[in-house]
Amino acid sequence: MNIDNSQTVGLINKACAVVAQTTYRYEFSICTLVTRKKEYAEMMASFVSHGFTHDSCEYLYVDNTQGCQYDAFRGLNLFLQRAQGKYILLCHQDILLHDHNRLDLSQRIRQLDSIDPKWGILGNAGGINLKWVAMHVTQKSGKRLKEELLPLKTMTVDENFMLVKNDANLAFSSNLAGFHMYGTDICLIADVLGYSAYVIDFNLLHKSDGNADESFYSLKRALIKKYHKAFQSRFISTTITRFYISGSCWGNLLGNSSIILFFARQYYKFFKGKRKYHKV
């Protein structure tokens, strides 16, 4: 179809050029799954009194007071989709700010911006590796758990307090459900997308010490199963090339050899025809 210059200009003027978002309606979106409104109100009051005022912060909640309308994975994904803050703070209803405030959190964010601009998630507790955990939390008993070497890059963050950078465009898994392990899940997703997670120096009171019941271990097994499948080695086909991806250097080397790719194509030719992918 041939169009002249005036038509080109007219059509383009009806479209919108997309640019990176640099401004947000709020600095912080503070998002909580709520089962006890009085406890949530106490949490919110502690935030407001520590600088997270309504003029520059929005407070979003999922109402689970009459039953479980949303589990953590679905509810927190809803927050990530709807929040209008530059930073999305996903937190439990049973926390209270008492030590650090908004200025402290902003300072920690600026520190991470200079250290690692590709950070995506910040928390006050998490697993650094198989040996070490790091946290700066006050327990309900009043005991203060403080790591001196903060900030620390972490594999996971604890769910009591997670700050997510909005423009990282992160999400929780749609094929997991429940109220545990979602901090681990979003850290794994962030890592795949090229973002880092950190434990920072931001102390608060958490009125629960955690509850590793059977639902916790059930969801742990489901998460292991999900990522076993997600991270499995596999052959990839595009419209113009074929290749093999693996977490193993030897796997990548052998899988991308011409002879292996040839036999793999024969396998799919004879045993995995197109009709096996037709769902109608």
Please explain how this structure is put together.
With 280 residues, the protein is an alpha+beta fold. The chain has two domains: 26-211, Spore Coat Polysaccharide Biosynthesis Protein SpsA, Chain A; 234-273, no CATH class. It is 35% helix and 22% strand. It is built from eight helices and 14 strands. The chain has helices at 5-13, 37-49, 72-82, 102-115, 182-193, 214-230, 249-255, 258-271; strands at residues 26-34, 57-63, 85-91, 95-96, 119-123, 125-127, 133-138, 144-146, 152-153, 161-165, 196-199, 205-206, 234-237, 242-245. A seven-stranded mixed beta sheet has the order 2-1-3-10-5-11-9, sandwiched between helices. Strand 6 and strand 7 form a beta hairpin. The mean pLDDT is 93.
Task: Give a quick rundown of the structure.
With 280 residues, the chain is α+β, with helices and mostly antiparallel strands. The chain is built from eight helices and 14 strands.
Main attributes of the structure:
single chain, 280 residues, alpha+beta, Spore Coat Polysaccharide Biosynthesis Protein SpsA, Chain A, 2 domains, seven-stranded mixed sheet, three-stranded antiparallel sheet, 8 helices, 14 strands, 35% helix, 22% strand
CATH superfamily of the largest domain: Spore Coat Polysaccharide Biosynthesis Protein SpsA, Chain A
Q: What is the oligomeric state here?
A: single chain
Unreliable spans are none
CATH T-level fold name of the largest domain: Spore Coat Polysaccharide Biosynthesis Protein SpsA, Chain A
Backbone shape: globular
**Alpha-beta classification:** alpha+beta
Characterize the largest beta sheet: strand count, sense, and whether it forms a barrel: 7 strands, mixed
CATH class of the largest domain: Alpha Beta
| Average pLDDT, all residues | 93
Any guess at the CATH architecture of the largest domain? Alpha-Beta Complex
Rg result: 23 Å
Pattern of helices and strands: HEHEHEEHEEEEEEHEEHEEHH
Count of individual domains:
2
Please, how many helices? 8
